[in-house]
Design a protein that fits this description.
heterodimer; A: 476 residues; MutS, DNA mismatch repair protein, domain I; Dna Ligase, domain 1; 4-stranded antiparallel sheet; 13 helices; B: alpha/beta; Rossmann fold; 6 helices; 9 strands; 27% helix; disordered C terminus
Chain lengths: 476, 268
């Protein structure tokens, strides 16, 4: 079995499985040569983008071990498990757990744990065993590995091989200044990194939040009630951490790591910083019903990526701080509405300094302090309902600036009994969208039955030009 | 506005009425006993805390008299139907009066589709600083938002554009309004069918009153009908809104029941 891709003018093998490799096929070989060697070779096109996405998903799932996870090249994942290995019973147990799960996913993987990234990289790829934990210092462990274990460019490796320096032990025997002179700085840097002398931090794919609460379950849980109970425990723990630092969360993210390799993320936002566990757990509960947990989650983490300072609240004598189940604040209600309907759908209108009716209203956050935007001019009559876009009407009106005497809108003809106007609104020439617009004359019209409309004429009469009429809103 | 005692023509509640305490004659007068009984019945009909909440009156004797408490019951569901523009204005009017009555909490307006124009509502007393717009989209989400807000009791008033409701849905909203002590207005229904709403209104536009200028639009008028009222009398009125003083007055009483055809000639 091999995967092919087109390169250098021919179909070549990109990857081969061990069975094919044993029969002599190598990546880079043309398909024709491969077929000559092995007529019944099964092939499929290589899909590097899909592979990269799967690798990213797998790396996300590996967040259950440690949040410092990143994808390494095209076929590797690197972790920083400082301080996390005790959660799994030690480094060997962690590797064993990781190995078992990967086997269950149907992936063959080689893994290694070492003090530094360079050493771990080399051990994972070139160590004789599929799973290694570096017990001895890096020098001793790396010595038997080939020179390619140092992450060198292929030309450098070939150059070293030509000189007979095939193993890391040979390189360690040569003073570093000599190596630098012959082969450049890159070699000595890589050597330093592998030995742990140069720092090489892992920069994770996803930002690691400062406030993080984690929980693992002996059995995977999938029922919504169980997940809700887990969320409550996590919010209690997280809020205790937040209280210790006098911070409140503005945004919370719940991540569930599923047993089958999937990851589910849920986020909620708060309009004001909050560390009330009941309120936060309730915000999640409303989103949990849509969650599909598959075979169940066995690790759940709750993080607060966005926090703001929140002073400790003064508790009144004999008064219980408003928490789980009770609303102490309008902000809590707005949070619940916003998280279910979308935070952009709960807004407060405010005035904008614009004469154009469709631009006169802007929306602000519901709890924002009343700004200095001013109010709309109370002298100007405005409709209670504005159409989303002005609709064309056929109107008969007196020239040059008389109101319509009759107009037809949505198939119904209205005879105008009374009219007010015109109110002239000029386009905003200082805005780019305002250029090319015409002056509008607005009229308030009332028909025989008492229905009142806001109709405007788009532009002025000129010889040879008859402007159009539009209906923009309905009055009370 | 003080609470008007229940009119005597209203039948007593079918719920179990505890027998009055037997007191020796001469200790309490009959009138006092009856008043105590009425208060007890009222307390049983509504959740605690709601008895004695001031009714939301219109400030107009003709309309307030038709309502059992002298105004809209503050912790209940009221339906407003009729033409779109006038119904919006009427709801804004009630909201404005409610904002004047209580200082706490905003007016929550749940729209199903955008169309509300706040500058036009300001004239009726609904200032934008105390207005919250919630665009819920689907009808089910609008009802959920209304129920949550009503139950929390944090809003001064809740208006929802949810169309026609079935009996169970309106009953749920009514219960939520009672529990939260918040009035709820429902717009967009056709005004038919069984409903748990306490009052049902229908607003239509009417030709405006005489105008100052030639052929100008005068003071706007509505035909306001109270088609259903629990414990009250249906009625219809022609009300007129005065822009200058921001008040409205009753221009004519159009009789009980559905409105008679409008026979006024339109001024030229």
């Amino acid at each position: 079995m091999a995967l092919t891709r087109s390169a250098e003018g021919a179909e070549r093998l990109a990857h081969v499985n061990p069975a094919a490799a044993a029969l002599g096929l190598r990546p880079g070989m043309t398909l024709a040569d491969a077929r000559a060697l092995l007529p019944d070779l099964a092939t499929a096109p290589a899909t590097p983008e899909a592979d990269a996405r799967s690798l990213q998903r797998l790396a996300d799932w590996c967040g259950r071990y440690s949040p410092w996870v990143a994808v390494d090249g095209a076929d590797g994942i690197r972790f920083d498990i400082t301080g996390a290995s005790h959660l799994f019973g030690g480094e060997r147990a962690l590797l064993a757990d990781l190995g078992t799960r990967f086997d269950r996913f149907g992936l063959t993987a080689r893994m290694a744990i070492a003090d530094g990234l360079g050493a771990a990289w080399g051990l994972a790829r070139f160590a004789p065993a599929a799973r290694t934990v570096a017990e001895a210092p890096a020098r001793k462990v790396l010595a038997p590995l080939p020179a390619a274990a140092l992450r060198l460019a292929p030309e450098t490796v070939d150059g070293l091989a030509a000189l007979g320096l095939t193993q890391v032990a040979h390189l360690l025997a040569i003073p570093p200044t000599e190596l630098a002179r012959r082969f450049g700085r890159e070699l000595t840097e890589r050597l330093a990194q592998a030995l742990g002398q140069a720092a090489e931090p892992i920069s994770p794919d996803r930002p690691v939040p400062w406030f993080l609460a984690r929980m693992s379950f002996p059995e995977p849980i999938a029922a919504a009630s169980d997940i809700a109970a887990a969320v409550e425990r996590l919010t209690d723990e997280l809020c205790a951490d937040l209280a210790a630092e006098e911070k409140g969360a503005r945004r919370l993210e719940l991540v569930l790591y599923l047993a089958d390799g999937g990851v589910r993320r849920l986020a909620v936002g708060c309009s004001r910083p909050s560390r009330a566990p009941g309120h936060l757990a309730r915000l999640f509960r409303e989103k949990l019903s849509g969650l599909e947990a598959g075979f169940g989650a066995d690790v759940a983490t709750l993080a607060a990526p966005v926090v703001e300072p929140l002073a400790a609240a003064q508790l009144g004598l004999g008064r219980i701080e408003a928490e789980a189940g009770e609303d102490g604040d309008l902000g809590l209600l707005i949070d619940r509405l916003g998280n279910r309907l979308g935070l952009e759908n709960v807004v407060r209108p405010a005035a904008r300094r614009s004469h154009l009716p469709e631009r006169a209203v802007r929306v602000v956050a519901p709890l924002a302090p009343a700004g200095d935007g001013g109010l709309w001019d109370p002298e100007l009559p405005r409709p209670v309902s504005l159409l989303p876009a002005p609709e064309l009407v056929e109107a008969v009106a007196e020239v040059p600036d008389g109101p319509p005497v009759q107009f037809r809108w949505r198939g119904v003809t209205h005879r105008v009994a009374r009219a007010d106007g015109p109110e002239r609104i000029a386009p905003e020439w200082w805005r780019a969208e305002g250029r090319g617009r015409r002056v509008r004359d607005y009229y308030r019209l009332e028909d025989g039955a008492g229905a009142r409309f806001w109709v405007y004429r788009d532009g002025l009469y000129a010889p040879g030009e008859s402007p159009r009429w539009y209906l923009h809103g309905l009055f009370a | 506005m003080s609470v008007v005692p229940l009119p005597s023509r209203r039948p007593p509640s079918p719920a179990v009425v505890a027998p009055p305490r037997v007191v020796p004659a001469g200790r309490r007068s009959k009138a006092g006993l009856l008043a105590a009984l009425r208060r007890k019945i009222e307390a049983m009909e509504r959740p605690t805390g709601q008895v004695g909440a001031p009714a939301l009156g219109f400030g107009l004797v003709e309309i307030d008299d038709a309502l059992p408490e002298g105004g809209l019951r503050p912790a209940a569901l009221h339906e407003i139907g009729g033409a779109a523009g006038p119904a919006l204005a009427f709801a804004a009017l009630i909201a404005g009066r409610r904002l004047g009555q209580t200082a706490a909490g905003p007016v929550l307006w749940c729209t199903a589709r955008a169309g509300l124009y706040p500058p036009g509502l300001t004239a009726f007393g609904l200032v934008p600083e105390r207005l919250l717009l919630v665009c819920a989209g689907a009808r089910r989400r609008t009802l959920w938002a209304m129920e949550e807000t009503l139950a929390s009791g944090r809003a001064a008033l809740v208006v929802g554009e949810a169309g026609r409701l079935g009996l169970t849905e309106s009953r749920r909203l009514q219960l939520a309004a009672e529990n939260g002590g918040t009035p709820a207005l429902l717009l967009g229904g056709e005004g038919q069918g069984a409903s748990a709403a306490v009052t049902r209104w229908r607003v239509q536009s009417a030709p405006s009153g005489p105008a100052a200028g030639y052929r100008g639009v005068g003071r706007i008028r509505f035909r306001l009908e109270l088609t259903r009222c629990r414990g009250g009398r249906p009625g219809a009125w022609l009300v007129e809104w005065d822009d200058a003083t921001h008040t409205f007055t009753v221009a004519a009483i159009l009789g009980d029941g559905p409105a008679l055809p409008e026979a006024e000639a339109v001024g030229a």
